[in-house]
Design brief:
This protein is mainly α and 199 residues long. The protein has five helices and two strands.
Length: 199
C-alpha cells in the first residue's frame, strides 16, 4: 500500500515537473537562450524515462531519473548564481545564450515593463531602456530556477524511496521450477541410455 501511495506521489511530481519545464522551455525559446533550451530538452527526456519507470514498476529507470535530479539541481543552482551574480559569475557574460547576444525573454517583456526611448545627440540616435518592471528579470529567472531546484530535490528523495520499495516488493518467481529455488539450478536427470560425451 505504501508503494502505491509513493508511486502516485512521484507520478504527480513527474507530471508537475514536466509542466514546469515545458513552461520554462517556451520562454527560453522566446528569448533564444540556447544553453537552457538544450538542458530543458535533456530534462524532458529524463522525465519521460522516470514516468515510464514509475508506470512500469522499473526501479532502474526511477534510479536513473533520481540521479539526473541531482545533476538538474546543480544546473539550476548555477543558473541562479548567474542571474543573482554570486561572486564573479554573471549573466552578462552571455553564457546562457551561447554567445549569441540574446537576453532572457523577461528582460524586455516582464510584468509592467515599458520601453522608453530617448533621443541622444540632438535626435540623431535613439536609445531605449526598460523601466517600470514589477519584478526584474533576474529575479524572475531565479524564481524559475528555484522552483526547479525544489522539484528536483523532492524528485531525488521520492525517486530513491520508490525505487527502493519497488526492489523490496519484487517477488522473484521462478517460472521454470515453480517455488522451489534449487530446481531451476540443478541439471536434469538423464533417463536415456545414450550419454553425450565431449569430443
Amino acid at each position: 500500500m505504501g508503494c502505491c501511495r509513493g508511486r502516485n506521489i512521484l507520478l504527480f511530481l513527474l507530471v508537475l515537473q514536466l509542466l514546469v519545464v515545458l513552461e520554462r522551455q517556451v520562454f527560453d525559446f522566446l528569448g533564444f537562450m540556447w544553453a537552457p533550451i538544450i538542458a530543458n530538452f535533456i530534462h524532458i527526456a529524463f522525465l519521460i524515462v522516470g514516468i515510464f519507470g514509475v508506470l512500469q514498476y522499473r526501479s532502474p529507470y526511477v534510479v536513473t531519473y533520481s540521479v539526473w535530479c541531482l545533476i538538474w539541481f546543480g544546473i539550476n543552482l548555477f543558473i541562479m548564481a548567474l542571474y543573482l551574480e554570486v561572486d564573479k559569475v554573471t549573466h552578462k557574460d552571455d553564457w546562457l545564450s551561447l554567445s549569441t547576444g540574446h537576453q532572457s525573454f523577461w528582460s524586455e517583456n516582464g510584468i509592467g515593463c515599458k520601453t522608453v526611448t530617448a533621443n541622444v545627440n540632438d535626435g540623431a540616435t535613439e536609445a531605449s531602456k526598460i523601466e517600470g518592471c514589477l519584478l526584474d528579470f533576474e529575479f524572475v529567472e531565479s524564481i524559475q530556477s528555484g522552483a526547479e531546484c525544489v522539484l528536483a530535490f523532492a524528485g531525488f528523495w521520492l525517486g530513491c524511496w520508490v525505487a527502493r520499495t519497488f526492489t523490496e516488493e519484487d517477488d522473484h518467481f521462478d517460472f521454470i521450477g515453480g517455488f522451489d529455488y534449487n530446481s531451476a539450478h540443478q541439471p536434469p536427470t538423464k533417463s536415456s541410455r545414450m550419454q553425450m560425451q565431449p569430443l
